[in-house]
Amino acid sequence: MIRLLRKYLKPYWVLLLGVIALQLTQSMASLFLPSLNASIIDDGVAKQDFGVIWSLGGIMLAVSVAQVAGQIGATWCGSRMAMSFGRDLRQGVFDRAISFSNKEMSRFGAPSLITRNTNDVQQVQQLVQMAAVIIVSAPLTMVGGVIMALREDPGLSWLIVVAVVVLGAVIGALTAQMGPLFAAMQRNIDTLNRVLREQITGLRVIRAFTREPTEAARFDQANRDFVKTALAVGARMMTLFPTVFFIMNLSQVAVMWFGAHRIAEGGLQVGQLTAYLSYLVQILMSVMMSTMMLMIGPRAAVAAGRIQEVLETESSVVPPANPVTELAKHGEVEFQGVEFTYPGAAEPVISDVSFKAEPGKTTAIIGATGSGKTTLINLIPRLYDASAGTVLVDGVDVRQLDPDLLWSRIGIVPQKPYLFSGTIASNLRLGKPDASDDELWRALEIAQATEFVTDLEAPVAQGGTNVSGGQRQRLAIARALVRKPEIYIFDDSFSALDVATDARVRAGLEAETAEAAVIVVAQRVSTIRDADQIVVLDEGRVSGIGTHEWLVANNETYAEIVESQFAEDETGGSGVSA
Ligand code: ADP
Fold first, then answer.
1. Tens digits of per-residue pLDDT, 67-94?
2. Going by CA atoms, what residue is nearest to atom 5 of ligand 1?
3. Can you give the pTM of this predicted structure?
4. Domains and CATH numbers, the chain
């Protein structure tokens, strides 16, 4: 936590200095007031000296103004500092999260990243704000208060010691129990978010399988756990304040009792006793504030740890130190003995894959579900890095390439295309912000999307949920086309299209992508039978590479796939679907 604070508070050191200076003024003023008050009573009121009352009253007024001004100023600087700190921290977490590869993303999970960047940051921010209010004033008041009180009357000093020790012990005991509870609370919030998010995302599945009661019970459980922890925290909070005030009032009564005796003995004046009481309250208040700080400390420390974990995680896909920024070739992808193992998995899902996709040619990848097709093409834009072997784009290892250059060469249509909230146009311009309307319409035409798009400004919901799966795929194809990349990657992009639309889209693409390297992952043989080369994947290994005709004659795996789909076609099916 200290490291986090040091790094993110550094830009605001001026504000921090302001907080300290203003708090110093404020606490000095508060410490001065009771003794002034005592003088007024003892030297002015008791002696009926109006001159003293007026002049001391004037000084008191001035000191009070200084105190109020200091307090307001310190709070202003503190809030500004804490809020700016929170903003920078959120930005830091966001920047880090966005650099993560799929590996780190799946390690944290989206719900936890969201909690960390909202609730956790807020906890630390709260600590900073609270610290800004009391960091200087509490210790200063505690020490200063004791000194000033002793100046008024050393005879009653044992009372202060007793009160501070009792109060400290009580609050300390309660605080110690609250630390672990706060840590549990952060975990509860994480779980609650995760369950809720999963349920909202999978709502249709839940309904379709009538899992509502089970899911409701699951949410209920998470909710109850959270409430239980929160109540346990609340119960301690609840005991805290009455106990604190009880001790405070009790010690005031004690001061008055013993003080009265001292006045009767003539060792103390009335004004001094009043001042003594004020100092006692000030001291106990600052003890309470400090322990409260200790109380939110553990919670903020837990939150800071969780934030730090995100900030310290390096993406496993690191951009090169000296990236290649010039490329001689255009639109070529080559796999050389590539192997890939998912983190934590025992066996590689891809092994010894070598082939070359050339410009102007279409390379198809076919294989059973789970044979590693998606994994293979995810290595091209470096969503993951190969565990062994090399992936080359335009003759350069992708790990050596400037990431922006690499991505600018690739137009990818993912298996599950994601559309952003906005309009059709804003989504299509994602890869080329300055594309003209004509370019957009042309891309939509090729992707066979003009039949359902009549207005470029039509709204698109987050995730593209207001269009059908097939429409979303066609919009994603159009989006890749607008960019005019040198390498097209279609990951099962035609599966949600009916056979006729599939054929029309491919016919349109052929002219458009004549110069580019096209890599098509497909399930349907009909989608890829005209490809220049077909790579047949079988359990992550290349079982054969060739044209449709060649593979039918020479590759058993491919022949089987063709046969199974042919048989289905005869019975009226439209091919194997994902
Ligand atoms: P395909 O696209 O051919 O259907 P994939 O490349 O999606 O196949 O998956 C290949 C294998 O890798 C599957 O056995 C799958 O279980 C595994 N796999 C896919 N994604 C992950 C992941 N994120 N973590 C671990 N294993 C994965």
1. 999 999 999 999 999 999 999 999 999 9
2. 372
3. 0.75
4. 2-312 (1.20.1560.10), 331-409+486-567 (3.40.50.300), 416-484 (3.40.50.300)
